Amino acid sequence: MTQSNEITCILCPQGCTLFIDLNTQEVSGNKCKKGIDYGITEITNPTRTLTTTIKTIFADFPRLSVKTDQEIPLSKVFIYMKEINQQIAQKRYQPGDIIVTKLCNSEVNLIATDNMGLEDEN
Question: What does the alpha-carbon distance between residue 122 and residue 113 come to, in Å, rounded to a whole number?
Fold first, then answer.
């Protein structure tokens, strides 16, 4: 018996409906190679870039938007969120600034995605 899974690819604007044979891991319905890679990853080890906010010490900027600089296993989102929720920005950050290195003892860093009002001094 063939088991299949149907998902929508989110890697490009086409939004292809992918059909994945769970026995053979063959992907169909894709219009580009990205769909094949995405479909296989989604059934074997789904990952996501985690975006959220952290508290700050600044009354004029109480929360800072942040994200992981790499994708993390979907199964570990709550573990990462537990560590992220403990962070409080003690200084002002610009987009791309690293807030936490090696989040959850991984190679993933937590970075700022918003400008907290730092002025360019040039």
Answer: 22
3-state secondary structure of 18: strand
pLDDT tens digits along 39-74:
999 999 999 999 999 999 999 999 999 999 999 999
Query: Cα dihedral sign for 60, 63, 65, 69?
Result: positive
Give the up-direction half-sphere exposure of residue 89: CA atoms within 13 A in the CB hemisphere: 27
- The H or E element spanning position 65 is strand 61-68
Residues 6-30, mean pLDDT to the nearest whole number: 93
For the chain, give percent helix, strand, coil, nearest 5. Answer: 20, 35, 45
| Tokens at 79, concatenated | 């573990």
Which domains are seen in the chain, by residue range?
4-44 (no CATH), 51-112 (3.10.530.10)
pLDDT in tens, 74-88: 999 999 999 999 999
